[in-house]
Amino acid sequence: MYGMNGKLLVVDLARKKAETKAVREATLKKYRGIDALAKKYLKNDDIVIMTGPMTGLLGPCANRYGVYCGRGVKAPNGTLAGFFGPELKLCGFDGIVISGKAEKPLYITVQDGAVKFRSAAALAGKSVDARTAALAGQFPVKCGVLTIGKAAEEGCKFAAVIGDRLYSGPAGSGAAFAAKNLAGIVANGSGKLEAADPDKYWDLAMAARKKAAQSKFAIALGSADARVSLAAAGELQARPLAGYRNLERRVDRDAALPVSVERRRGCYSCAIGCRKLYRVERGAYKGLYESPAPELADVFEDECLVKNTGALLKAYELCRNNGMDPAECAAYAGKIIRKARKAGDAKAMLEAVRKAVSEGKRTKPAAAYGYDFAAVRNKESNAFAADLGMCPFAAVSLSASEIKALAAAALGKE
After folding, report:
1. Per-residue model confidence as pLDDT tens digits over 110-134
2. Same domain, yes or no, for 171 and 285?
């Protein structure tokens, strides 16, 4: 099947063994998409990491992959972006099935077809940034890194795996990795992926990338000019931009706390660049903060009622660098500071976030955030595209017919 390798990497952590499992084309067609294929191979307390048919292709933001940690409605299962999924696909594998528990903490490296198990003792207690740098530093070229943080090691229930230093996996996925003594996985691939109709797919993909990059949604997410972002978001009137709009309004208007955007970048094959490096010019939270999309920081305002931009970015930075899901961390922090009647207190919020590293219990977030596209057109198309391996932030700019044409050119007509 085009877009897929027809191979899974099957890992037994207890025996430190890895083998390749062939997947028949009929199975890939029957269980097409990240969710269906992952659940096909998900058993008991296994962890399954799965890419989609379009993950790794050079289409608009073809970087999505899923992390599934057990069965059940409350199991930490979901998708994330970055580079790890495409790198895994370029290693020749469509996914990884992980069973057993390692005797001591370890991490796995996958370089094309070579798989190695290495001690993670040197990573203990380190931040996500430090872990990612240490793991990525083993390869001379760019690779994908999926790792846990300090929160998972210390028992935080909503600890998440973090992809490529910035992208949060589903809440609880980090705890599932830690339960298996799995500290992380590095993927570095040099393979190629073939589309069913390469020329047609290339033309459609480049047109889609251009359209996505020039859309109001992309402008609102990615512009380094807060006034441009605010204007685009205002025209869209879409829920995932509600928190974003609030943050950018503060960025643009709060003369007492100047915040600027120093750099934009994105995931593999990105057409938008919503990942921004913010500089808080002065005040108690002066410094540099990176966020893949500002509503992830702004969810702390919704839950904790804090309005200080620097404090919100700091809270997200602490959350991400310790390996915690931002929505559940914000909900947990909000519950603590409201109980202490300190809602709106930036210092109390940050202390609650630090407390969550070792004591965080699952708390249902009250605030919608991130990929809630309820008020955005093409909602069904976005879900379809994400399951194939495209980022919803790009897919929201395309029509259902455009996404289907991309899929047909990439994967062939069934």
Report:
1. 999 999 999 999 999 999 999 999 9
2. no
Q: Is the domain of 31 the same as that of 53?
A: yes
DSSP string, 223-254: -S-HHHHHHHHHHH--GGGHHHHHHHHHHHH-
Rounded Cα distance between 65 and 62, Å, is 9
Compute how many other C-beta atoms are within 10 angstroms of the C-beta atom of residue 257: 18
Please identify, among 193, 220, 250, the residue that sits at the C-terminal boundary of a domain: 193
Residue 248 lies in a domain: yes
267 phi/psi in degrees, rounded to 5: -80, -175
pLDDT of residue 277: 86
Amino acid at 307: K
Position 386 in a domain: no
The sheet that has 287-291: what strands, in order across it?
259-265, 275-280, 287-291
Both tokens assigned to 139? 């390869």
Cα distances (Å, whole numbers) of residue 145 to 131, 161, 184, 250: 9, 10, 7, 33
Domain closes at, from 148, 171, 193:
193
Global pTM? 0.91
